[in-house]
Amino acid sequence: MFLQDLRAGVHVVCYVEKQTMKQGALQSDGEAERIFVRVGANVTLRCPDLPPGGGAQPPRHLTWWKEDRRLIEATRERVTVAPEAGPRVALVPGSSALIFRSVVAEDSGEYQCVVNNRQGRRGIVRLYVQGLRPHQEVLQDQFQTMKSSRTRFEPERPPGLGPNHN
Length: 166
Hints:
mainly beta; Immunoglobulin-like; 8-stranded mixed sheet; 4-stranded antiparallel sheet; about 40% strand; rod-shaped; Ig_sub; Ig-like domain-containing protein; Ig-like_dom_sf
């Protein structure tokens, strides 16, 4: 699995789950791909397990899903992007890679790349976006000096009695 992080200093860990369709049933090779990226970073997801040799040409038919929603469908003739994908998600021209620009927490989830060709492959990539949402306050470690004063409360005195009156 190829993962490209376009923002320096972002810690990305990935690991891949590859599945192959055989006679209508999914076969898994036991590996799983998980990608961790920070809010605001750019990241590219490659469709795992494309045909051996890297596939000089893009697949005949490729679909990227997020959970049960179709995001992008591509044939060699055209690419269709669902409105739900938004302007920050696109297919890298001439490839099966999905690129995210400035990821947000809502981009976290399971993405499936389904390649409809003779091999009939499906790759699953789980994207985890870490960090605070933009509207949350970022707290930094700070030392603060606090002053404390001692306060004494005295019972109310009737009018005309001073503080020295016993």
